[in-house]
Amino acid sequence: MNWNLKAFDTLSVQELYAILKVRVDVFVVEQNCPYPELDDKDKLAQHLFLTNEKGEVIAYCRLLPQNVSFKEVSIGRVLVNPNFRKQDFGRELLQKALDVLNEQKERAIKIEAQYYLRNFYASFGFEECSEPFLEDGIKHVEMLRKN
């Protein structure tokens, strides 16, 4: 297995396809949530992902700079491929994302977390900073982590 951190312009066609496929599989199909998955933020993001020897994306998130989603940097589209869940890849992914942002000296990170995952994010130091709200029919909450 191999961890990758790449800017949009450095992703290969195969990597981009694998990332978009798993994102659609999880966020559109699995969550039964038709919404515009491609939002132009990908072009500004760093893409952190774990692949196996077949090139399948096992875990993925995108790291967004300040003033794209929030005034703070953000972590979004956090997922673990359904075929690889219950193996702690989600914890490993989030820790790697935080390590990258810490190396870049980011002081605050804001996310929109699915509400049922708020305790998972809290275990990494994120604190709820909004009331729960619906985003594309799914309950979310904004969370902030300060270093």
TrEMBL record:
It holds the Pfam family Acetyltransf_10. SUPFAM superfamilies: Acyl-CoA N-acyltransferases (Nat) (SSF55729). Transmembrane segments: none annotated. PROSITE patterns: GNAT. Residues 6-147 form the N-acetyltransferase domain. InterPro entries: Acyl_CoA_acyltransferase, GNAT_dom, GNPNAT1-like. This is GNAT family N-acetyltransferase.
